[in-house]
UniProtKB/TrEMBL annotation:
Location of the N-acetyltransferase domain: 3-152
Originating species: Dongia sedimenti
Entry annotated with the keyword Acyltransferase: yes
UniProt keyword annotations, A-Z: Acyltransferase, Transferase
InterPro entries: Acyl_CoA_acyltransferase, Bact_Acetyltransf, GNAT_dom
Name of this chain's protein: GNAT family N-acetyltransferase
Taxon lineage: Bacteria, Pseudomonadati, Pseudomonadota, Alphaproteobacteria, Rhodospirillales
Top-level taxon: Bacteria
Amino acid sequence: MALEIRRIEERDRSDLLRLWHLGWHDAHAGIVPTDILKFRTPEHFAIWLSRSTERFYVACDTSLLGFVSMKDTELVKLYVAGKARGTDVARSLLRHAEKILGDQGVTVAHLFCTAGNLRAQRFYAREGWRLVETFEDNLWVPPDVALQYPVPTHRYEKSLPEKARDGGKD
């Protein structure tokens, strides 16, 4: 079956949460303060998703292989299932997000990446994203938690092609 990228549907929710939970722990658990892990349970990811105002897109063939989310000029999340790493799923999701942002008139897109997430950093650099600054940013915690967990965070930018005036046709 061919890869399909589409808006998230309710039927995708549990698979997306499982993939996000596993992917976050794989990429971040060893580079963030260990105390944050108490807020990285499947239940906390469900809260996080339910409060999100991002637009989510999923990549599927016979199962959910990854997802990307966007808000305003930002690519917010990009996760790919372990079995889909090394394929073109991550690149396809990234390009899909870049196209949507570009079609909305965004000329410079942004993304943030926890410093030390080397796999993501190498991927973004290969895909033409430019590291423009590193700063301390607080990790997400549930709304009723007053604790803060600052971590070094990279901000990347990428110039996107302007939307064609003829509706995107060549």
